[in-house]
Structures are given as C-alpha cells and as structure tokens.
Amino acid sequence: MKAFPRLALRALIAALGLGLAREPAFAQTGNADILTGVVRDSAGKPIAEAVVEATSLESGISRSTKTDSRGRYTIVFPDGGGQYRVQVRYIGMQPRLVMVIRKADEDRLVMDVTLSTSPARLADINVRGARAPPAEGVTPGELARMLPPELLRRLPLDASDLNLIATLAPGVSAVDATDSTAAGFSVAGQRPTANAVALDGLLFSGGNLPSEGLRSVRVITNTFDVSRGQFSGGLLSTTTRSGTNSTQGSWFYGLRDRGLEVDADTAAAFGRGYTQHQLSGGMGGALVRNHLFAYISGQGRLRSDDLASLLAASPPTLERLGAEPDSVARFLRLLDAKGLDGATIRRYDSRATDDGTTLARIDWIVSSSQTLTLRGDWRKNRQDPTRISALALEQTGEIVQSEGGGGLVALTSRFGTSVVNEAKAYLSGSSRERRGLAVLPQGQVQLASVLNDGREGVTSLIFGGAARAPQNQDDHGLELSDEFSWLPGGGGHRIKLGGLLSLASTRRDATPNRFGTYTYASLADFAANQPASFTRTMAAPEVEGSSANSALWLGDTWRPSRQLQLTYGVRAEGSLLRGAPAYQPDVDQLFGRRTDRFPAETHVSPRLGFSWTAASGEGRLPRTVIRGGVGEFRSPLAVSLGSSARAASGAPGGEGQLFCVGAAVPPPDWSQFASNPGSIPSACTDTLVPAGITRAPSVTVFAPGFAAPRSVRSALGIQRRIGDLSSLSLDLSYVWGLSQSGFSDLNLATTPRFILRDEGGRPVYVAPEAIQSATGAVGLIGSRRYQSYGQVLSLDSDLRSRAFQITLGASGFSRKGMVYQASYTYSRARDQSSGDGWAVTGGNPNQREWARSEFERRHQFLLNLTYPVTRVL
C-alpha cells in the first residue's frame, strides 16, 4: 500500500499529459457557464466572422470569439457567475450590447442577437429589478439553496463550518459528533453518510474552509443531472474564489467571549459557554491582466470551551443527569482511596480547539477557449481534551489531532462552437491521531439513585482511560474525471458524456477497548473492588485497505421551447473493495460466509427532470417556475468497510475478544495499572466457571450480494414570483432508501431460552445458569452458537428507509437592502436502522423492524434575515 501515492501521482501526471495533448482546459464540472447563440442580420441570415465579446460582471474578465459560418458562437467561463455584458460587432453594422443574466434553471445561457445596418442608438437589454431573487437551481428540476459567502459572514455563525452551513437550507438538520462519528447533516431524515461535500466539483473530506476563499456555496437537496453522483442523500457544492482583474481582498477578526454572553448558566461548564478568537482573510488579483490570476486565503481559530465533566457538575446538574450528588461524592472519595484522583494527569477546566486552513488558487487563461486552474488546500485541527461525557472524569478524555490537504489540476477547453470539454484531477491525503490522556482500562460504575423529586435514575459514572484510544489512520485518494459536452444545431440540446475514477486507500490502527473495560454493578461493588465484568479487544493488528469507484454517464439537457427544459440520462457506476484477507474454511463451514471475498458491483441509474417557466417579457424574470423529476442515486462503497473486515478475519493473530464475568474477572489493581500499563490483564482468571471465560476471535464478513447504498428520489415544486423582489415556493419530495447498510451477528443464538413476563414478554437468549446471580452479568459464550468464535458480524445491505417532505418557502429582498429567506418544512422519515446499523428491536437484534428515524425533524422552521444597519445610521 505504500506504493499507492506513487502510483496515484503517476496517474495524475498521465491524465494531465493526455489533457494537454488535446489542448483542454478544465473548469470544475457543473460550475462552468456556457454562453451560446446565433448572430443574424435583419433579414434573418446568419453572420459569419462577427466578433462576440463577453465580460463577467462578477470578475471583470473578458473573453471573445468569432461566429462560424452558421453564425454560431460559444464562450465558456469556467467559474460561472450567471451575469455577463455581451457586445457583438460586425463591419458595416451597428454593434449591439446585451446583458445576459441567468433567469431560472438554465444549464447554459442562450442569447440570439440580430444586427442591423440602420443607424440606431445603442441600447441595453436588462433584466428589470435591482437583482433576481435567490436562485433555486441551475439544471431542470434541481432544488438548491444558494448561500453567498458575503451573506454567511453577516450571520451569527461560523461561516467556515461546512456542516453548519448546510443546515441553512430547508429540510436539512444538524447531526452532532459522537465518540466514533464526525459531525454531519441529514437531508430529509437520511443518514449523514448518504451526503457528499464537493469542492470545485470534486469530493472533499474536510469540514472547514476559509470563507474568504469561497466564491459560492450551494446546498443541493434534489438534482437530476446525471453528471452529479457519489451520493444518495444531499450534496453540498462549493467553489473556490479566483483572482480577477481587480486586486482585492478582505480580512475578518471575530471575538466571542463567554463573559459577554447573556445566559444565567454562563459560569457553569454545562452552560456551553466558550471564548473564540478567529482571524481569516484572503487576497488576490491579476498577475497578467485577462490572462493570469491568483488568489490565496486562510483562517486560524483558537477556541476554548468550558469542559462539561463529572467534576464540573453542580448538584442541580447531577440531579438533571440522573445522579444523586451524595453518591457522586462517595464515588470521588473511593477514587482517591484507589489512587485514581487524576493526580497523575493534567487537570483540565476547558477544552481547547485550535485549527487552521488555507486555500490557494491560480488561473491561467491560455486563450479565449482554454483555461488552466491549479488549486491547493491544507487543514489542521487539534482538540485537547475531547470526548469526555458529562458523568466522566477528565482522565477518560482524548487528544485528537488531524491534518490533511490536496492538490487539484483543472482544465477546460472549447473546440469550435459546439464542443466543450471539462477535465479534472485531485490528489489528497490526510492523517488522524487519537491519544488517550491516561493509559488505563476504563471503569464504569452503575449508579441507581432516588432523586429529590422522587424520580429514580440509573446511570454510569466513568473513570480511568479512554475506551476508544489510541487510534491512528492515514488516508490517500485520487479522483479523475472528464466530461464532454456537445451543443448541436442551434444549442437546443446539450449532450454530455463523462466518466469518473476514484481510488482510495487507508492504513489504520483503530481498534477500540484496547486497554479493557471494568464494569461494576453498584457503588458498593466498587468499594469492595468486585467488578461484574472485564472486556478487552486483543491482538488488534494494523490493517490496510483500498477501494475503486467508477462511473460513466450519458445525458442530455433539451430545450424544446423557451419555457420548457428537460434533463434526462443514465449513470452507470461500479465499486470494488480490494485487499480481502485469506480464506478461513471454518468460518465458511460454520456460517456460510467467505472471508476472502469482498464486494464488487455495477449498477445503472436512470434520471429525468424538468423545468417549466411561464412566458415573460424580454429581459424579465419568469413569473412562475414548475420543476420536478425522478431518479436513482448511489453512494460509493466506503474503503473503511474493507479494512474492518481485514482486521477481524478470524485468522490466527487477528482481532479477538476477551470477555470475563463473575469469578473469572481478574481483580483490578488500579495503582499498578497507572504505573505499569503492561500489568493490565490479557486473560481471565482460572476458575471453575468456564462459561465466564471467553477469548475468541472476532470475524467480520460481507453478506452475499452486498451493495452500495442507493435511493430513489422524486420531487415536484412550484415557485411563484411576487412582484420583482420576492417569491414563494412549495416543494414536495419522497425518498425511498435501498440497500442501506447494517449488520447482523451470525454467531448469536437467537432461540429464546426463557421469557421475562414482567417486562412485556422480553426474550432472553442465554440459559439462566449463565447469568451471574450477584450482578446480573452475562458471559459472551452463553449467547454463542459456536463457542470457538466471538462475534461474527455479517455486513448486510438489506435495510430500507423512506421519507416524505414538504417545504413552504418565501425569499426576496427590499429596495433598502434587506434580504430574507423563510421556510417551514414538515417531514416524516422511517427506517429499519438508525444511524449506525443497529436494529431497533428490544428482542432479537438481528431482526429488522421499522421505526421512526432518529434523524427525523417533524417540524422545522428556518428564517435568515439580514439588513444593512448603516442605511439607518
């Protein structure tokens, strides 16, 4: 696997060489504006050799071309913008100046121009109104929320946090980070892993970018363009800022001080107060006017959060968390007696989060039909400490740091007036390290309390080390893409043929519970040092894995009339996980699964979208837009799935589970553990209770026919303009999730041994004699079909989900500069698993049952309002 970066670099150089051989220049797929049309004389005859010059109103960059023998012209702006000043000239005729502005869902801007020999005053054709209401999409049927960075910087939020930005779109909700998953967002109640984040048209794995370096941010919740893929949920599409003919820049410093917060609980750690210093900025311009441009931006942030932990919790807070304060005080005294008061590690009162990110971009306009773009990105983050629960000591926390970056080569070229080629390549790498504050087993003490209000609370107090540290992971990726666009005839069609290849590799050492976990059934057992169980993951090797995902698409965007646009096509995708472990015949014989087979699949997805606009006057925005479509979307196979199966292949020396209960639990010596981590037990105590001892290999295998997650999406919406400044919209969507991933335990004995009638007939899958009468602890062997193995997890893709969503929105602006976006979203989402694949049933965990999705937000209100106060002052 060490050779992967070298191979990726060679592939990148080869792709660039092929591109230069046919003189393409790349603009990010989906971001380029294509201006096309026909120049005629007053008799309707096409004019050849007419000069057409277009100037972007956003960047001030000009491009020119000449019409062909049919009078056709085509100009490509790689960075888009949607607003252009076009001048048409021909000897012996009056020149014409035209303003070309995207009105609705055009994927290309068509403007036919008629020149006259009669003397006439030059006139502008303008769209009435100061500016158009916020665009909802740029391809037929697409529903998206455009979020300009200038708007984001005015809002009281972190404009560099991409996951937070996504929640500004209707129907999108935030998903907090856990100890095993990163923060994300959910679209229409779907899993966060179904979404994708794209930077300049390519997948991006980072979570923060400097806002000054971004040109546009679009949250796409529905699209039917076959060139968009590698997601089955939503797409957050961002583009970076390029230099222009004008040297410009901006700088921002933000201070948030916890002492200035108006909050009754500001002084308490559980009040979520924090202090943050944030400095960001960007600057760029023309190195050679109209030919060579550069832009660089960066951001640094220092943040300090009050640390919510057991030692910081006040008595009222402990009551709210279900813990009786006197019991917690006794627990802390017992820790002191055992030498676990935390004196061996640094005491934390706050959590520090320091991060930095940089973007740099160079654009070279080789000619009016060729552009080369180079972009680099870098990011680094450190949290110290983190992943400390509210009822845990600081010593259970971790120090987490990550670093990553990449380089992009983008080429765009125009051949004549009918062909546009877009190509791109992105090479990236990242690393992540999690280190525990203390090298100790983790301890969990179950606490049953009678609270002051009469409630009964059952919770756990946590001490010792971090259960999921240490962990290390290195990832590398290479993505190559090329798209060929053909505009035949008069530009009524745009036929697209494209392909994509995405390679990923990972090397990780990410096994949880490496130093073990002791569980105490009560505070009294903790005082007597009598744990109910001890578990530990043994012999966790460093594993490698790689994946390849590819796609081919063929589609057309057709304008049968000025009012109607259609987009349709098919997208064929394939996925392959590589590096399967050796064949284990015992696993195959006992469970019917082969460890040496990783999934490989291909799938074809059709899509159809439309957009209809009511007829409007020349230069006016359409009064009504109706859009919709239906299509299938597919996520790629994650490379982490293969590495998990390699780590737990069932082979000798692979990952295994140590599970001790009752008398088989090795007695803990916490002070000895602190001074000598090598003394942490690696075996259960010899005893006459063999059912309490388990040291069996773990196995992870793929179910036959395992497939990547997919979704079938349908949408219908209407947007109605009210005057020139506002609009109302109504959108409905239905999502049917297919091949959603989960897992089942093939080694679980699913025949109930007895029933708990007092608990609603809940089944129990172990024999009564396997349950420790003193603590209720159950050994793993008691629930195993074959005692020679621990958990045998089958990665499945047979889960389903469904979601319905309706959104009513209003947006617009006033003539005095106020901008508003308001929406109400009602949604219903149900699935057969919530988030991590665990079954939601209280009985057999391998049984699939439908339940309300944990990502459902039944009612969601969203209001964004900005107003320039300087107008009042």
How is this structure best summarized?
The chain is mainly β.
Write up this protein.
The chain has 873 residues and is mostly beta strands. 9% of the residues lie in helices and 46% in strands. It has a 20-stranded mixed beta sheet that branches. Strand 29 and strand 30 (564-578) form a beta hairpin. Mean pLDDT is 83; it is low at 1-30, 120-137, 688-693 and 834-841.
List keywords for this structure.
20-stranded mixed β-sheet, 9 helices, disordered N terminus
* Uncertain stretches of 5 or more adjacent residues: 1-30, 120-137, 688-693, 834-841
Radius of gyration: 31 Å
What's the assembly state of these chains?
single chain
- Structural class, from helix and strand content? mainly beta
Molecular shape: elongated
Number of strands: 43
Total number of helical segments? 9
Most strands sheet: 20 strands, mixed
Portion of residues in beta strands equals over 45%
CA-to-CA gap between the ends? Answer: 63 Å
Q: What is the percent of helical residues?
A: under 10%
What's the overall average pLDDT, rounded? 83
